[in-house]
Amino acid sequence: MRIVISGELARAWAGRDPFDQVLRLEGEEYRALEGRRTLRFKLDGRAYFAKVHQGIGWREIAKNLLRLRLPVLGAEREWR
Questions:
Q1: Which of 20, 22, 25, 43 has the fewest CB neighbours in a 10 Å radius?
Q2: What is the mean pLDDT of the chain?
Q3: CB-facing half-sphere around the CA of 12: CA atoms within 13 A
């Protein structure tokens, strides 16, 4: 697993658990589905978006495999 935190977020969250900080974020929710949400939040006057995923579960993994599709288990596609 790789965690990349840059700029203002790295300074604001220094010495803190980044997962805990992300789960505590509050802001305007743009999308909220089972196990995931997208929200806009502000930190030091700057706006950011966060996509928070709680995992897809074994049922979703099995469904994808039965459809001959690889399940998406990380954010690698969005990172690129």
A1: 20
A2: 87
A3: 14
Residue 33 clears pLDDT 80, i.e. is over it? yes
Distance CA(80)–CA(65), nearest Å, equals 24
- 17: domain range? 7-79
Q: How far apart are CA 80 and CA 60, in angstroms?
A: 24
CB 26 within 8 A of CB 52: no
Return the structure tokens found at 52.
Answer: 């928070």
- For residue 10, give the 3-state DSSP assignment: helix
- Residue 65 tokens read as 């495999």
Please report which confidence band the pLDDT of residue 79 belongs to, taking 50, 70 and 90 as the band edges.
low
User: Tokens at residue 28, please?
Assistant: 């305007």
Q: What is the pLDDT of residue 68?
A: 96
**Considering the domain boundaries, does residue 42 fall inside one?**
yes
- Asked whether residue 66 is assigned to any structural domain, the reply reads yes
